[in-house]
Amino acid sequence: MAYANLQDMIDRYGERELIDVTRTLNDDRDVMNVARINRALEEASELVETYLQRRYQLPLHPIHLAVTRAVCAIARYDLCQGNDREPSEQIRAGRKDALAWLTDVASGKATLDASLINERSETWSRIQTRPRSMQGTGLW
């Protein structure tokens, strides 16, 4: 499930940029490659889910604006690569910020208003205490 759509990308970055980054030499000058944009949004959404899957029930519902923003920034970066293109520093910084925020969400430093997953795994580590020894230093 994509957490952003074509209109989100247009609203954030404008039609002209999307046309420029998705157009090939054989394409019309004023037509964006919608299929390529949608694929980038799907891939970015899947990447976002890898950060969220241990803490939240997926797919997220409702979709949070911060998640949409992160997906758009990651998709924008992906669209700007290839065909002798390199993302600008602004685009790189946007992706880096999005990934840093996702890392914070994954670690619990930032949260979403979404359903948390209740971990029921038997493989989580547990602390076991040992009785103190009466001999020596008391360590064993």
TrEMBL record:
InterPro entries reported for this sequence: Phage_Mu_GpJ (IPR009752)
Record-given protein name: DUF1320 domain-containing protein
Source species of the chain: Sorlinia euscelidii
